[in-house]
Amino acid sequence: MPRVILGYISAIDAMNRFIGRIAMYLIFVLIAVLLWSSVSKVFLTPTMWTLETAQFVMVAYFVLGGPYSIQMGSNVRMDLFYGDWSPKTKAWVDAFTVFFLIFYLGVLLYGGLVSTAYSLGYFGNEPFDFLLSLVGTFFTEGTAAAGDKLGFLERSPTAWRPWLWPIKVVLCLGVLLMILQSLAEFFRDVGRLRGVLD
């Protein structure tokens, strides 16, 4: 296998392992938020922010931990036949079925990016141009110039009314990381079929 492919597998595995190991601890943040919600409802004035904060933390936990789960082979599988197959047969099946996963994740990323552009106040027909120009402006001209490009920021319709763009950005990042990890798994399966990787 070319060194660039082996380097890609190593780099993506290391990055997603690092992010996934940090994302694991978001479960404790979620527990703390839900515990505070319970305590405040019983002993104090109930807080408005706990339910949505718990939802946002759970989304971040799930999508940022997803690539690490794929890497560790901890994702859910229909193991009726798969468990009895040889490693080579598993690699063949995985190398084929990963394209269905990548297609699904690509559609999810597309929808997430369109939704993120909407949450940043863009209501036109070219959300990707808007997002690219926003990121380009941020890196070339700074935060203030990028802020001038934003429109009406979408907020949740609840009483707390948090902005929705931060969690949508996290969702898009997590799905992108899952696509990169899926490609690494595909290359790993090809390496197993060729006898280069174990």
UniProtKB/TrEMBL annotation:
InterPro entries in the record: DctQ, TRAP_DctQ
Domain of life (superkingdom): Bacteria
Membrane-crossing segments per the record: 18-37, 49-70, 91-113, 163-184
Molecular function (Gene Ontology), one example: transmembrane transporter activity
GO cellular component: plasma membrane
Domain Tripartite ATP-independent periplasmic transporters DctQ component span(s) in chain numbering: 30-190
Tagged with keyword Manganese: no
Membrane topology: Multi-pass membrane protein
Keyword presence, DNA-binding: no
Keywords: Cell inner membrane, Cell membrane, Membrane, Transmembrane, Transmembrane helix, Transport
Subcellular location: Cell inner membrane
Predominant place of localization: membrane
Subunit structure: The complex comprises the extracytoplasmic solute receptor protein and the two transmembrane proteins.
Annotated function: Part of the tripartite ATP-independent periplasmic (TRAP) transport system.
Family: Belongs to the TRAP transporter small permease family.
Protein's name in the database: TRAP transporter small permease protein
